[in-house]
Amino acid sequence: MGAEHLLVSDAEVQFERRRRLVGLIGAPLTLLLVLALAPNNLKPEAARMLALLFATLVLWVTEALPVAMTAVLAPSVAVLMGIAPVERMFASFGNPLLFLFMGAFILAQAAERTRLDRVLAARLFPTAETSPERTLVSTTLVTAGISSLFSNAATTAMMVPVIRAAVDRFGPRAQSVGILSAAFASSIGGVLTPIGTPPNLLAIAALTQYAHKHVPFFSWTLIALPMAAATLGVWIIILLLTVKTERKRLHTAGRTVRDEPMPTDLLRLRSGDAVAFGLDRGQLGTLVAIGLAGIGWVTPGLLELALGSQNPAYLWCKTAMPEGVVAIVCASLLFVLPASTRVVAGVPRPRPILVWAEAAQIDWGTLLLFGGGVALGEQVFSTGLSNWIGELVLHATKVKTEWGLVVLFSSVSLVISELTSNTATAAMMCPLAVMTAQQLGVSPVAPCIAASLAASMGFMLPISTAPNAIVYGSGKVPLRTMMRNGFWLDLTGLLVIPPVVMVMTRVVGVR
Questions:
Q1: Is 459 helix (H, G, I), strand (E, B) or coil?
Q2: Whose C-alpha in 5, 93, 132, 252 is 20 to 30 A from the C-alpha of 297?
Q3: What is the pLDDT of residue 3?
């Protein structure tokens, strides 16, 4: 993350500033140094691309510039260095998958503006008196489900006050671990769908762009589901053990813990929704648009599984209903479907669910990062640098099998994601996984997906993901608590991701 407004101490702010200073000085020095020391067996364009790639990685890791700005700057510098013409470098900003993200962001923006996400969360919570254990499990599952479709950061921010109220009857340790659930469940749920978190689409883009392999929406969910379920199960066990220990401590002290209803009022619902959890016109219209998008996204994958890849119905859906087209068409409904009626010059006029000023508040930075990352990856391949990098990785690691690549890239991606944002990690590791697999002569699908999933498994530090930064910034989660509990989830990811990805890519037929 690296955002100073999410940091809670002067020491952390100073660390971030020093890290950025290192990046501002180190990036140009790295560029010049790599240019001077580039191997003679590289073509001039490939040598320049190698230098630019290393300089970009320095900027991404140190976040000397905003990650999205670096993603736009790097293609611009590539043009200045004569690596490729401007038309080719900026063509990636029109990648069809970018419009899938744009449409999904607009749908999520409508859900947030109409508070549909909060209403759905409230409807999923039990309303009767319930134990803290059941409250935490329910909240964790709801958080994971919501974050699979909506912003992880927004989901975390929404769920933190609910969880805090559920565990406020316990001591500090149980409270901090409970609040961590908002972040950890959001990160785990985000891997379930291609739109759940940016690393997922970066992996799909790398496979589509450089290996001509398409991973359908439904297939991605099937691949990620066992890994997410295993990681979420481990986290729920940690939660329950923590609460059990706290119950024993309180019982020894002569205190009891009462069952209470879920504190759904902390979701800050509007008065009408807080009572009946009903849907108004805007929420219903948003739900219709999201539902239609979901149907459009999963239909091709379902048809392929049910009828086969050569069936005419599947082939038509694959051609006429790509995910980006479905996302944009369904998002456009939000500017037509009415949310309320307002009086203008004495005449009642319906107001749409979204107006452009509201839709324009989506995360454009992620879209720019996506386009810039694809542009750099394209030049790595077109200049022939990918073959050289692939040979270098294989020689250094001695990996000779697809299984070895999956273990290698999931491990490296997870470690790097602890030190920088998961999106920047995926932007670096997914293309590298594809080019190395191609050099070895094996399918790049499993290594690339493993690198993406592992990038979202950084649980130990606040800088790893936006959800981590949000709960740490609350001041209720000590760093040692995040690191201690995050370690077990990191370990789970390292153990689960390789076998799950290897098996599920074969089960769903994505090779």
A1: coil
A2: 93
A3: 44
Asked if residue 479 is part of any domain, the answer here is: no
Backbone angles phi and psi of 328, in degrees to 5: -70, -45
Total domains in the fold of the chain = 1
SS (H, E, C) 126-169: CCCCECHHHHHHHHHHHHHHHHCCCCHHHHHHHHHHHHHHHHCC
CB 231 within 8 A of CB 186: no
Contact by Cβ (8 Å): 46, 384: yes
pTM metric for this prediction: 0.78
Neighbours of 253 (CB within 10 A): 8
Q: Is residue 27 part of a domain?
A: yes
Task: List, as one string, the DSSP characters of 66-133.
Answer: -HHHHHHHHHHHHHHTTSS-HHHHTGGGG-HHHHHHHHHHHHHHHHHHTTHHHHHHHHHS--S-B-HH
Domain membership of residue 77 (yes or no) is yes
Tokens of 379: 């030049």
Write out pLDDT tens, residues 458-472.
888 777 777 887 887
> What angle do helix axes 132-147 and 217-252 make, rounded to 10 degrees?
160
Q: How many CB atoms lie within 10 A of CB 130?
A: 17
User: Which amino acid, one-letter code, is at 216?
Assistant: P
Structure tokens at 277: 């959890």
pLDDT at residue number 275: 41
pLDDT for position 30: 93
122-150 tens-digit pLDDT = 777 666 566 777 778 888 888 898 888 87
Question: Which amino acid appears at position 469 of this protein?
Answer: A
Question: What is the rounded distance in angstroms from the CA atom of residue 443 to the CA atom of residue 445?
Answer: 6
- Tell me whether residue 428 is in a domain: no
The residue range of the domain holding 72 is 16-89
CA dihedral for 215, 380, 34, 77, sign (positive or negative): negative
DSSP 260: B
E strands, 255-394, are 338-344, 347-352
CB neighbourhood size of 276 (10 A): 9
CA 354, 355, 358, 363: dihedral to nearest 10 degrees? 80
DSSP category for residue 476: -
Which residues of the chain fall short of a pLDDT of 70? 1-12, 125-130, 169, 171, 250-251, 253-278, 341-348
